[in-house]
Specification:
Blueprint (H helix, E strand, L loop, with lengths): L2 E3 L9 E4 L1 H10 L7 E5 L4 E11 L2 E11 L7 E6 L5 H11 L4 E5 L10 H21 L7 E2 L5 H4 L6 E5 L5 E2 H5 L7 E5 L7 H9 L3 E4 L7 H16 L20
Parallel strand pairs: 1-3, 6-7, 6-11, 7-8, 9-11, 9-12, 10-12
Antiparallel strand pairs: 2-5, 3-4, 4-5
Helix pairs in contact: 2-3, 2-7
GO molecular function, one term: methyltransferase activity
EC number: 2.1.1.193
Family: Belongs to the RNA methyltransferase RsmE family.
Length: 257
């Protein structure tokens, strides 16, 4: 069943009216018909199974059939990504969402090349949000990842994750050695930009509890490194590789009258 994210306030009543891009996608792209069912999620933990009742000039009218809480069995991972150049952040957001990243924290590193002008920041934020939503819908995620605005390192390092990893090729330990015997509740992964991390940034991260780790002989690109660690963590502690349920995380609710 197709699923889409909508603002939480749209799911408060017995009916939902969809317009704009969602109306176009349902009616013109998917060629949905009256009687078809879709899942609408608020991105915070609620899933509504809805039936299309009518296509009107104002939009698509749907009736809520069932409501149910949703959850994810992924390990909560925050990807603290040094802001890369060009459109690499688009790829990081898309693939990170597919892999189950719970939060993205872009940070302005000393060697970050990308420093957009203030007038471009709003457009960039809107593009990033759209990428995350579309990736979450495509990968059938139940919850939307949090997307922070770009910030400085000290602010980005704040958090309460019990496993904090710093990807750094110098004076670091193998990832497998650090993960041995771990059962983390949540994890944070700090990645530098294309030019790498400055020594002062590494020391500040260490002071905040981040452990420098490496991948052995290979040096991964900034847009690849985070994916590699997230995949390992989700395999060991999350739901990557687990059996797929018919509708994971969603209990079977009673149908509304």
């Amino acid at each position: 069943m197709r699923r889409f994210f909508v603002p939480a306030e749209q799911l408060r009543g017995a009916e939902v009216m969809l317009g704009g891009e969602l109306e176009h996608h349902l009616g013109r792209v998917l060629r949905a018909r009256v009687g078809d069912e879709v899942e609408l999620l608020d991105g915070r933990g609620l899933c509504c199974r809805c039936r299309i009742e009518e296509f009107t000039k104002k939009g698509v009218r749907l009736r809520v059939i069932t409501r149910a809480p949703v959850r994810e069995r992924t390990l909560p991972i925050r990807l603290i990504q040094g802001l890369p150049k060009s459109d690499k952040m688009d790829l990081i957001l898309q693939k990170g969402t597919e892999l189950g990243v719970a939060a993205f924290t872009p940070w302005l590193a000393g060697r970050s090349v990308a420093r957009p002008e203030p007038e471009r920041r709003e457009r960039r934020a809107q593009r990033w949000e759209k990428i995350v939503v579309e990736a979450a819908q495509q990968s059938r995620r139940a919850l939307l990842p949090r997307l922070d605005a770009p910030m400085g390192l000290d602010e980005a390092l704040c958090g309460d994750e019990d496993l904090r990893l710093l990807l750094w090729e110098e004076q670091s330990l193998p990832l497998a050695e650090i993960l041995a015997g771990q059962k983390p509740r949540a994890a944070a992964v700090l990645v530098g930009p294309e030019g790498g991390l400055e020594a002062a940034e590494v020391e500040r991260a260490r002071a905040a509890g981040f452990i420098p780790v490496n991948f052995g002989p290979r040096i991964l690109r900034t847009e690849t490194a985070g994916f590699a660690v997230v995949s390992v963590l989700q395999y060991l502690y999350g739901d990557l590789g687990c059996a797929v349920a018919a509708d994971p995380g969603i209990p079977t609710p009673k149908e509304a009258p």
